[in-house]
Amino acid sequence: MKKLLISACVAAALAGCGGSAPTAQQSPRAMARMGNLAAARSATSPDTPADAGSERVAQGGAPGSKALANGKMVLAYYSGYTNNYSSLTKYYANVNAVAIDFWNITPAGAVVGNGDPTPTNAITFLKSKGIAIYGCISNVSDTSPDGWDPAVSHAVTGAKRAATVANLVSFAKTNGFAGINIDFEAVDQADRKNLSDFAAALATALHAQGMKLIMTVPAFSATDENDIHNLAFDLQALGQAADYIQVMTYDETIPAWDAGPVAGSDWMENALDYATSKAPAAKVLNGIPAYGYDWIGEGDGSQLYWRNVPALLTKYGVTPKYDNNVNAISFSYTVGGRKHTVWNENARSVTLKTSLVSAYGLAGTSIYAFGMEDASFWSAVNAGLNK
């Protein structure tokens, strides 16, 4: 749904009326979504400080949200970030699945480490808590200047497909994982059918062993589905094959570009509109970032974790602005005569974006990533999932 329509309908909802658009033009899903957006936006008044919340978060007891109790997936990524293990052991009760992001695939289809030590402590901990583990597999290689290697995805989805599928199933089974999360990026557009056929073959093989497949895909909409970076991802075919489609609704803006929102709600909703038009909503996960970026200028940005934002605000005595158009915060500060511009999330924006799980009838949500967040982040996640 386009941003202008959403804005008009939310404004009408906040005003206490149904809006001027004919009801026949709005599907039940769209009307429910707008109701949730209105509730999320009105939950925090414009005068509320745009910093992290302080609600109590589940830490080892009962599930932190109704979403878990109702069988929704709350997936968090475990990558090589500082404090990842500490966050996992504190906040594990807020998730029911974790993607361990420490493995790559070779052109021959062999599963290899990504250079970091295998996080055996995290795997052991998750198994002790009965939390589903998905081995996250990437097409990253040392020979590609960008890391993501289209030559690798071309080989393993094509000529080496059978060997790759066999190796991935063996890898997941040997490690006692719930399944595999395929995170292939920069896939050549010519490999669109190969990627779909690969997903179908891998899903069939995993299902035969009682395991599941998550396919991670970029966030895009009908306006850019034929973009060179998106064309390889046939969401209809992937949605038929995989158990879950994890839409990366983060990194709308990256450090290599000019400053902007990292996960604008308008951009996120357009991507979800498209994804759920192609794949069953009950298979789709929307991604929520626990980070933003800090830019000095165009092409000169760095990652800023959620947990580090409050200290930065205090240090420089700044108050962030909440942008109602994209539902994100931004602020500026100056160091050594150089102006910094920050875009990030706060409790209000995360609550709103996780409420889209209910609004769209999604399978659940995915969080990137352990180690970037604090208790207030999980409180906001749960507040949105409980809507």
Automatic annotation (TrEMBL):
The keyword Signal applies. SMART domains: Glyco_18 (SM00636). Keywords: Signal. It comes from the Bacteria. Residues 35-62 are annotated as: Disordered. It holds the Pfam family Glyco_hydro_18. Residues 1-23 form the signal peptide. InterPro entries: Chitinase_II/V-like_cat, Glyco_hydro18_cat. GO terms for biological process: carbohydrate metabolic process. Residues 72-387 form the GH18 domain. PANTHER family: CHITINASE DOMAIN-CONTAINING PROTEIN 1, CHITINASE DOMAIN-CONTAINING PROTEIN 1 FAMILY MEMBER. This is Chitinase. The lineage of its organism: Bacteria, Pseudomonadati, Pseudomonadota, Betaproteobacteria, Burkholderiales.
